[in-house]
Structures
1.
Amino acid sequence: MIVVDTNVLQKANAPLDHEPKARRKIQHRLDLLKRIVAKEVKVLYSLRLMHEYRTQIPTPRNEYLRTFFEVLTAGGGGLLNWRTPWKEGRLAARECRYPGEDDHVAEFPLIGPTRFPGMGTT
């Protein structure tokens, strides 16, 4: 299970005439989206995060993003969650200037990071 930061989706939201070269960063992002669509990886998200996705990406410009949103909300590729078990951690996060809008990313390690081959820790 992973959390996908909005930045990853924004940078994958490019019109595509052909597949990018294998070593390009966009190709790594598209590979992640392919794995999500294939349901090899499940995405943990909240209503707040979905709102952020839709605000930052009002119109998906390629099929990967369109399919990502479909699978996430209706296709069983996502897990709508979010209770906040880390109330004590919020104060510490604010003291080190961790941005509040990224709380959804900081909450994820409490669930437990997963290691995917070739992708490091996510």
2.
Amino acid sequence: MRAESETVDRLNVFEQWSVRGSSRQLVSCLIVAVLVGLLYLNSLGNQFTNWDDGMIYQNPNVRHLDWDGIKKIFKVGKGGTYQPVRILSYAIDYKFWKLNPMGYRITNILLYILTCIMVFMTLQHISTHLREGRGPSSHFRVGLFGALLFAAHPVHVEAVTWLAARKEVLQGFFFFSAFYLYLIGRDREGWQRVILFVLVLFSISLATLSKPSAIVFPAVLLIYEIALQRNQWIDFIKRHWVFFSLATVVSGIFAFILIRVMLHAGGIKPYHGGTFFNNLLVSMYVFLYNIKLLMFTVNYAADYALRVPFPPLNLLALSVVLIVSLFFGSSLWSLKKNKVFFFSFFFFFVTLLPYLNIIPISTLLADRYVFIASFSFCFLLGIGFDKLYSMRHEKFSGGFFKLLSVAIFLFLLAIYSFMTIRQNRVWENSYTLWSDAVEKYPESNTANALLGVVYMDLGMDEKAAEYLEKAVQILPIDYESRNNLGIVYQRLNMPERAFQELMTAMFLKPEYHIIKINLSIFYQRQKEYRKSEELLKELISKKPKDASLYYRLGILYKEMGNYEAAVSELKKGIELAPGVITFYEELGNIYISRMQDIERGKQYYSRGIEAAPRAKVKGEELRWMIQDLECYQ
């Protein structure tokens, strides 16, 4: 009895502490921050992966943080994607950390901490408005329980640990900041409301510039207002029509930019299954798989092999349609009885909407897609633990349910934490990432393709061919894997198969210039110089400012013995990229070894050292070569 009394006393102390003022908010935010820091501490030593290369490691836009560089980052271009805030954050990281991945990871973790704190604040306010009749301590517990589970949930590892997914934590922070500011602002009057609503628009603009899927934010506000005031929400929107109109216009502008960019980049794919009806069925499968991913998945991976059976008219498809219909029907019905369930379900649905492939995209399922949507799941969990905490029953002592609630919560938090820490290790490097994905989902095209690239980089070409062949078998239209197979087959001295793969890749993606470059290299190795020259000249006609093409053409002419033409092309490359030392090195080599002009060669070596002071290793090599030449003269 004494032990039980002590337990009750401790829990009462906790409850008394939970209803205190602003100090409890600060302490709670500190707890959230410490938890996130501990969970992701073992990720700080992780390296860049080959999923980060194009966005960070090989991205020239992150190397310049001056005004011209920033303007270039925010310029809407063709191809790729439009996420300038994410690129700007990389440029800031590069300014301080260069290419040390630890610095980028620290930034990701800090952004995630800020996101989780905003989740905590937002959960409290939503609980306060949607759960009438509960005291401040109840809303506080919902916020704290939900935020801690959000912070620890292993489905978020991809968003935090994958550096190229910086867009998720950036969007998360700005998205929940905008939501929190809206919740505060709607209850204020006069200029306070105006200022807060302006900050909402500013925050959601930053969220959308971090990741365009934030365009659904006005729909989230609409869902919240319907849940909050079922019969008066239209009047509320009419009274604040200026704000809602501006929010809709902002989302509309960014939606237009997003669709335009995706069309140019080929991001919008044909209907899955060939028809709109089949594609809609795929969207229903994806919706249920995302629920499974959030609630029932144990083994998370960087890529999933999601297979939807066709033809669609089968028992499984009918079951999927029925389950989804029940979800929507019960959620609409719950508006009369349970505001929380209505809001939670439709928040989940709306924030997941950009990824459901109603407009087909390349990836059907990914952990990062439920990053924002998981907020509603954690909201429901927080409410569930709070209800258990507040239960009373005559057969049990006063502190029994409090102890039970805290114990179950800590058990779930420990499970989530263990899974998160374990998943961080998976992202240690490219090999651990893709070997794990292939092991868990051997039919994943992406996992096989990128594991093949890992083996290519390691020079293990036979293993590379094995995984690239599997990737092509799974997805025959994978032009990048066919292009890589062409390179691997060349290394394995299998020219016929190399040529076949390169030509197939070029047929699948005729505008992809890298395939033509590799084909020109293939022709060069086969001594078919004219074909190689024709390809390079065709590429130069389309991309006249690409210095690397002049370099390749110069090297081709050097191998052909046409040294004057080689010098001419390399000089054109220097005009476009005067800070690249390899142009000067090759010109020096040609003048010294092929044209017997040692003085001219030394001049180009010296110019290269001056033009590229950061290329210290290559610069030192050229200095030694100059000294050796002077000794022999």
3.
Amino acid sequence: MKEQIVTMRKQLDALAVLMENLTSEERISRWVRKAHESILIGRAWLGKVLKEMGEESPYKKDGRRKRVEDIEPASDKAGITDYPVLPDEWAIDIGNVSYVEKIDFLREKIGEIAKDLKGMVFVDWFDAPLHYLFFFGEHSYSHLTEARFWLGYELQRIKELNEKEIEE
């Protein structure tokens, strides 16, 4: 189960990186920024799940950092295999992929991870002797669901902007 959590953390890191790499015009939206933050917080709660499962903290210098060099790199960073498989047509010409497609894609990938997590949280961990697994896992699931909400708001914002432009 620990491996599943680490994999989810890496997948969420990959989605966060994809969001960070949207063009600057696309990142301006407060809904996209909020979704990005929700993904990071959901990922952080999964780190708390790992700690509750007995994983040692990767941050050995907690409370003893004095310089930038003392800050450890983030754990469970995405590798190339952790990125979602992009649709074939995107590989041909990413420049022709619309912003709507990108947001919808991110929203769906977050939903897939949330669905997998929900099965673990509400089935495997609900009666777990370590009750914090449920608590921390539920927090992560809530933040991932929230990220999908924010991206849904972004899609609505795009639609309303488009309708406004048509009217003018």
